[in-house]
Amino acid sequence: MLKWAKAYAKKNKLVLNPNKKQLETVIRGLVRNKSRFGHQYCPCRIRSGDEEKDRAIECPCIYHKDEIKQDGSCHCNLYFKKA
């Protein structure tokens, strides 16, 4: 999952959270959700249980680009703007 997140960040000119502990926590949450639910749902968002609705929160969620643009990082603090 970390390899995937790094590749996504590089492709989209983003950086991963420089705080290793926070980064590992989010990656563990993604792995857990992938294992439990079959999809890498953002660990910082609550699933509705409706698979179609929950597609919006599969990492990278549909909100991440706007959040990064507005706040400098996504809600999960996985992806950040490059400095």
Features:
single chain; mainly alpha; 2 strands; Ferredoxin Thioredoxin Reductase; two-stranded antiparallel sheet; 83 residues
What is the count of structural domains? 1
The helix tally amounts to: 4
Strand content: 5-15%
Largest sheet: 2 strands, antiparallel
Mean pLDDT: 97
Overall geometric form: globular
CATH class equals Alpha Beta
Q: Helix coverage percent of residues?
A: 40-55%
Q: Structural class given helices, strands, pairing? A: mainly alpha
Q: How many DSSP E strands?
A: 2
Distance separating the two termini: 24 Å
SSE arrangement, N to C: HEHHHE
- Provide the low-confidence segments as ranges: none
What strand line-up does the widest sheet have? Answer: 1-2
What is the annotated CATH architecture? Alpha-Beta Complex
What does this structure look like?
With 83 residues, the protein is mainly alpha-helical. It has a single domain, classed as Alpha-Beta Complex (Ferredoxin Thioredoxin Reductase), CATH 3.90.460. Helix content is 48%, strand content 7%. The protein has four helices and two strands. It has a two-stranded antiparallel sheet. The longest helix has 18 residues. The mean pLDDT is 97.
Tell me briefly what this model is.
The protein has 83 residues and is mostly helical. The protein has helices spanning 2-11, 20-37, 51-54, 64-71; strands spanning 14-16, 79-81.
